[in-house]
Write a structure and sequence with these properties.
mainly beta, Immunoglobulin-like, 5-stranded mixed sheet, elongated
Amino acid sequence: MKIPSLFTLSTCFLLIFASCSKDSEEVEEEVQSKSDEKEILIFSIDLDNESVELAINSTEINHMFSYDKDLTSLAPTITISDKATISPKSGVTQNFSQEVIYTVTAEDGSNTKYKVNLSVEDENKKVTFSFIGLPEDGPNGYKQVKLPETEADSINFRVPYVSKIPALELQLNLPEGATSIPESNKILDFTSPVTYAVTFNSGDTKKYIVSVDNSLDQVKLPVFQLQQFMNIAAGETFTFNAYPTNPILDSVKVNLVNSHTKERIPLTVEKIEEVEYRKNAVTVRLPESYLNARYELEIFIEHDNSDITFESQMLFNGGLPSFNYINLFGELDKVVSRPGAYLSGIMYLDHTRINDYTYSLKKDGVEYDIPTVSHSDFYARSTLTLPDLDGLNAPNGNDYKFVIKIDGESYEYDLVDYWGKPVAVVTGGNPKNTSVSQNVFTKGDMITITGENLYFANNGEDIYRDLSEIILSSTESGNNLVYRLPVESSNENSLVRNIPDEIQSGEYNIKLKNNIKSFNQDIDTGIDITILQPGSTHPTLVVTEAVIGVKSEEPFYKQAKITFNQNIDGVEIDEILFVENSLSVKNFLTYPTSVVTGVLEDDDLSEMNHKRDGKVLVTDNGVTYEIPFSVVFQ
């Protein structure tokens, strides 16, 4: 029975020990987690409605106030470490004519004592300054800006802009018995800081550095609305606000700045009124003549103090009508007059009289009226339908003028793009005034056609096709052959192209089509040419006759017989090409001076009836030759 009792007792002892051990660890952990921070972070005192923050040097706070301060009843504002407490508490009135000790206790119970010793000067050392002859109150009065104390007090005054800085009279209000150098009420030059040395009764001397600043605050303009100053006529006035301006009227300069060209128009400043603190109403007069445009407003109140309304533009359209530039709609470097062509022009007009204007293009003294114009309200963009310059025989050129007319007056402007570059005008009509280099050609020759409106340089603009075309139309009775030869040219007034081998020999009329998309018709030049078969490339061998039989009762019905000028023994006949070289015959009968094909298909014969040129390819002594012919149906 004793053994179980001892076992039970031992178990209980172990449990109690373990429990106590755990409690001890929790207490230790709790103690270790408490803060030991116990500092005064900020110690400030309010005196005469001014908060003075005192310097803290380790655990001592010492400060000397001016002689007239009462230290017997002050309630400091104190900021201490987080979770700490202080005694006496912040905000509790204390008598600081003697030392006051503050105890800061941390959360963990530890503490730090701070000694606060305040004192006052033995004598009155208060010095004040005032300018004689300058207003002291109001927005235009002088104001004192006191900078932090060092060995000397640096004092800055903002004085009115019109103050005579080289000759200001400064009055020093000194304590009884104190003197200053320079003396009070002496007129001095304050363009540079002036140092005053003040000697008090005690013999102590203190320096005061006095500087003045009469610069103006940075002028600011508000945001304006686009239509805010519309319809103001030349010579009239308008008023805007600025924040603030120069009190000297002649020192305020105002310009209108053309938003596109950046040209400046000086305005006459007539009046400046203060409408509220730091806000002036400026009245300016427009010149007797100005061009309508979008403008920005610019104001100068000093040479280096200005503002401009970059973020807001204003439309002035009560002056003269103006034309700025044109958009080319993919034509990149020229205006091409063609059916349905139009321009987008930037013009500034009086929209109350928008229907009274007329427009034209002008060159060499001749005007070409623009038939229709549409305008967008107030945004200066107008769409103009081009006149038929080609039909009017207008010349090409990059010296065209844009003319606006109203009330019998004409206003001419250079026809330019956005960058001010002259825009060429091309009378992009149908090809005309054409001629050909010769009238008889052999296949493979180069044909050169000259004239106007033949090709327009294509820089990827959407009004052009890639190529112009030379169209050859057969003039032989019953023959409707038409060949379209695409041409890319480096010259707007000429087309050069070789005559390919596939073209049939015969008589042709030349038609042309340039590469402007608006023109879809083939233009007859009235020029006829003859195209011949080239000669045989063999030194001696030629075809003297090429016939196809079309009568069933006759020999060689539906067969081609090709006869040569000499015996062809020893010459290898490789193939016979028909129908623009698209039909190749390699099976044929060979005779001493001729070859005969087998029966040809009806479809092939039908093609040959219109396309009769062909060639025989032969090899002689290892060299291949081409011997051309034209078939005859009989």
